[in-house]
User: What shape does this take?
Amino acid sequence: MKSPVSLIGTLCWLLSSAAVAAPTLTLTLDSAAAGPGEFAAGEIRREAAAHGLAVVAPGAAAPADAVRVTLQVTTVAAARPQSYVVRVQRAGGGATIEVSGADAAGVMYGGLEVAEAIRTGTL
Assistant: This one.
């Protein structure tokens, strides 16, 4: 597994041009993430608003070049509590960021990493 610094660096590199071309962000939160996931989602929304990204509600129409963030609990037998994986895919001028946590705490930590990328101006 990559270190958090390496993941942030990869996220920065992949999305540096998407921030200019995609001022819209969609955010979907898995209900299984409960309170910790809601905290991370709130941080993502707050940082997005502070940095000029419009946050579109789940299910609402978003442009093709939007950054789509999904926070979800993914049960994997070998996963340790509070662990997470951040996957980034670019397509059509936009990007999809999928944060999969072993539990709600893992979703929170991964979501906070995304919020940090926004806060540092790399998303």
Remarks:
- Residues 11-22 have pLDDT under 50 and may be disordered.
- The radius of gyration is 13 Å.
- The first strand starts at residue 24 and ends at 29.
